[in-house]
Amino acid sequence: MSKIGITTTIPSEVLWAAGITPVDLNNLFINSPDNQKLVEQAELQGFPRNTCSWIKGIYSIVRESGIGRVIAVTQGDCSNTQALMEILQSEGIETIPFAYPCNCDRDLLKLQIEKLIEQLGTNWPEVNQAKQRLDEIRRKAHRLDNMTWEEDKVSGFENHLYLVSCSDMQGDIAGFGRQLDQFMAGLADRTPKSDMVRLGYIGVPPIFPELYDYLEEIGARVVFNETQRQFSMPHAAAGLVEQYRLYTYPYGVFERLRDIKQQLKLRRIAGLIHYVQSFCFRQIEDIIIRRQLDIPTLTLEGDRPAPLDARTKLRLESFIEALTYRQKSTTKNG
Asked: What's the per-residue H, E or C state across 220-285?
């Protein structure tokens, strides 16, 4: 099967139906042992210092991996993707634009999906068959997500890793399904971590994944990963168009907030970490999030793939200490 790089989650059913393997370029970049060098290589090619490191990493990993085609989400994700697409085009990479309509318009979304179907040479019956295969794996991911907050047996990082992998199924639908089965089968003998402060994580996946393990070191555990969960298509829908209308990530902060508020209550979350990427327009949304959510929130900014710095660790420690004190006081007075 040929491969196409994707800059974020798209209707991958179309690619699988066309006999094409999607490759999430974000995952390929961040999992590279040389991810810091990939950012530096893009800067040597002229990318500005004050450009998102994910964009720079994607650019370099496309060049390094030899991927010849990329589907670039030009609306509903990063505001720099248009320029990235143009640079890749200038270097001989075939690019295919895909745009999520800003107002969740069903007709416009269907048009975008149909254009992709036509470009990749498949059809609706084959796409719907691919959806059935993917939905089977997604249901397993949903069970894993539920085990994270209901049974307290899945770590925040494990939850992040498996849910974020739903964007491209790690290039192997059946193989990824077996991974999920094996992982969940191994949870039976785990002791639940029910004594930790329960956290929610919202925003794009972190550029420093060690965040999750460090939180557990200091007594807290992420039981809700907002965007990663959305990659698993948590809202059941019979049709493909409706499925990607219910997918909240590309449609603005208010669509996201409705889902976030439900999950904060359902998962009994004590505090929230809002991760914002340096030089990203989504940083501005932090203003709305703080106005709309009545929960202790720590905003963390990340720039490059690197270990957590001392200042960030100190802020996390202070936040968890405050939540722990608040939790004990509530229990004592309640």
From this structure: EEEEEEHHHHHHCCCCCCCCHHHHHHHCCHHHCHHHHHHHHHHHHHHCCCCEEEEEEECCCHHHHH
Its pTM stands at: 0.94
Structure tokens at 277: 């990427």
Q: Are 296 and 271 in contact (CB under 8 A)?
A: yes
Strand partners, 197: 220
E-strand ranges in 120-177 read none
Whether CATH 3.40.50.2300 fits 2-124: no
Q: How far is CA 301 from the centre of its chain?
A: 16
Q: Would you state the structure tokens that stand for residue 115, as one six-digit string?
A: 């254009």
Please name the helix (run of DSSP H) or strand (run of DSSP E) that holds residue 197, with its range, or none. Answer: strand 197-202
Per-residue tens of pLDDT for the chain, all 334 residues: 699 999 999 999 999 999 999 999 999 999 999 999 999 999 999 999 999 999 999 999 999 999 999 999 999 888 899 999 999 999 999 999 999 998 889 999 999 999 999 999 999 999 999 999 999 999 999 999 999 999 999 999 999 999 999 999 999 999 999 999 999 999 999 999 988 999 999 999 999 989 999 999 999 999 999 999 999 999 988 899 999 999 999 998 999 999 999 999 999 999 999 999 988 888 889 999 999 999 999 999 999 999 999 999 999 999 999 999 887 776 666 5
Domain edges within the chain: 2-124
- Give the number of other CB atoms < 10 A from CB of residue 121: 11
User: What is the distance between the alpha carbons of residues 2 and 7, in angstroms, rounded to a whole number?
Assistant: 17
Q: C-alpha dihedral over 308, 210, 280, 6, to 10 degrees?
A: 150
